[in-house]
Amino acid sequence: xxVRKSSMFTACVALMAICAVLVIAxxxxxxxxxxxxxxxxxxxxxxxxxxxxxxxxxxxFAGAYSDHGRARYLLRFYFIAIxxxxxxxxxxxxxxxxxxxxxxxxxLIGRAYDxxxxxxxxxxxxxxxxxxxxxxxxxxxxLAGSDTCKKLARQASFVTADEFYKSSLTPLQSGCCKPPSxxxxxxxxxxxxxxxxxxxxxxxxxxxxxxxxxxxECESCRAGLLATLRSxxxxxxxxxxxxxxxxxxxxxxxxIAYKKARK
Length: 263
What we know:
Elements: H1 7-32, H2 45-65, H3 71-99, E1 105-106, E2 115-116, H4 123-130, H5 133-145, H6 148-154, H7 161-165, H8 171-176, E3 186-189, E4 192-194, H9 202-206, H10 219-262
Antiparallel strand pairs: 1-2, 3-4
Helix pairs in contact: 1-2, 1-10, 2-3, 3-10
């Protein structure tokens, strides 16, 4: 029986294409997700990997339905490329699980929000925001021009310090739009704080009420960015795990169907 007549094989390849689209969609969402949009370049490899998987499955589909003599090369490419790409996807998932293990968050008494420290994250993530000054300068400029802190400053619901402390801030707002709590600054507004005479923490000296500066140079801001990326990464990993398990099952089922069709 010809391969192109094997409905089992073609069905498996078609379902694998759907899984590839799921990987692409996850990667696109990760790449354009809000809050950490200033670090988009770190988030597009998932979509690229999904595109490669889709191309490989389309090659297998075309090879199965083509009567041309070169169709066997398409099938050969499919059977070689898909396992390699699945291995890369598994390696990516393991890598993501390792580097996003620590949350970097620590709760505060009397605060509804958490604050974040760099030493709570993996060394790889810390290196991403601290290893290249030029990269962080680009991210910092993007954050200063975004609505992350501007939106917080416009909220009229924060009249008193207690109301602000009971609010649910995002990791970026907590790390970049206000000074760390250990600085002991006095609250004036969401992005306006009175500086004490002495500040025990390095970030305290970097804080400025200037809307273009705030705490964008602080380690807490870097930690807030990593916390946002980590949260988004975990959401993407759920879809990628489902896609990976499905790809492995469908590839094995399709390979068995291909062998039977060859006989």
